[in-house]
Amino acid sequence: MTVRVASYNIHKSVGPDRQRRPDRIFRVLAELDADIVALQEVDRRFGARATTFEAEQLEHETGYRLVRHAVSPLSSGWHGNALLVRGVVEAIDRRRITLPALEPRGALLADLETEQGRLRVVAAHLGLLGRYRRRQAETILEAIDSAESHLPTVVMGDLNEWSPHGSCLRVFRSRFDIAQPGPSFPARRPMFGLDRVITSDDIAVQSAWVHETSTAREASDHLPVVAELKVLAPGETAENAPLQTHAGVRG
């Protein structure tokens, strides 16, 4: 039994054609068939930062439920980040993480009850400047360490890290395993793996891939990334469930 997670920067529901079409985002989410999804850029950037989709519409169209972190009734996310769950997955605890940056940045942390037991999920969208990305990664690890209990943990999101040797990746790699499913940006001709899934050593990434379909190429400037995770039993090692990186889901 595995938990399927996904991360998707929806670019405020605006596709490469510059049309704001949340219906296309909903179709991509339905294609993902994930249990847990981290979204970035769910709200407009300026003004009241109003949402680009309504939670009720999202659930009606896709079956996903929004884990509430927003501080404004007009927003679906916090600093653009949102977590979605569906099926039997339920949030049992949640908190917001303020990240150091020149521009407002944040991350979300939620403890979720899944069929494999409790899982801690952090959803993040890191900044554009490398020196801040490193500090943001350190802040996320500090937030994980400050939690009252240890749980298997997955961090996912748009890290804005163009280099596989970037400083924020070195911070995460000191403690966690990093799966790069493949190039996810720009959507129409992906060349850079900005979107990643990062796991603690008590989770095995059984497979990871970029979800590249015709709908996804038109819905946002990023493609979603997806991973199948297995929470390891005490004494079990990740070698029993090695990483398989797919060439991508195409259509």
- The figure for the number of domains is 1
What is the architecture at the second tier of CATH? 4-Layer Sandwich
Indicate the structural class.
alpha+beta
Shape: globular
Helix and strand pattern: EHEHEEEEEHEHEEEHEE
Question: What is the β-strand count?
Answer: 13
CATH superfamily: Endonuclease/exonuclease/phosphatase
Our measurement of the CA-to-CA distance between the termini, rounded to an integer number of angstroms, reads: 26 Å
Q: Which percent range fits the helix content? A: 10-25%
Organism: Caenispirillum salinarum AK4
Domain Endonuclease/exonuclease/phosphatase: 6-222
GO biological process, one term: GPI anchor biosynthetic process
Keywords: Hydrolase
Summarize the structure.
This is Metal-dependent hydrolase. With 251 residues, the protein is of the alpha+beta class.
Q: What does the model show?
A:
- With 251 residues, the protein is an alpha+beta fold.
- The protein has one domain (3-250): Deoxyribonuclease I, Chain A (4-Layer Sandwich).
- It is 19% helix and 32% strand.
- It has five helices and 13 strands.
- The chain has helices at 22-32, 55-62, 130-145, 167-173, 214-219, and strands at 3-9, 36-40, 65-67, 82-85, 90-99, 105-114, 117-125, 153-158, 177-179, 195-199, 203-212, 225-231, 249-250.
- The protein has a seven-stranded mixed beta sheet with strand order 3-4-2-1-12-11-13. Strands 5-6-7-8-10-9 form a six-stranded mixed beta sheet, covered by helices on one side.
- Strand 6 (105-114) and strand 7 (117-125) form a beta hairpin.
- Helix 3 runs parallel beside helix 4.
- The longest helix is centred in the middle third of the chain and has 16 residues, at 130-145.
- It is globular and about 50 Å long.
- Residues 6-222 form the Endonuclease/exonuclease/phosphatase domain.
- Keywords: Hydrolase.
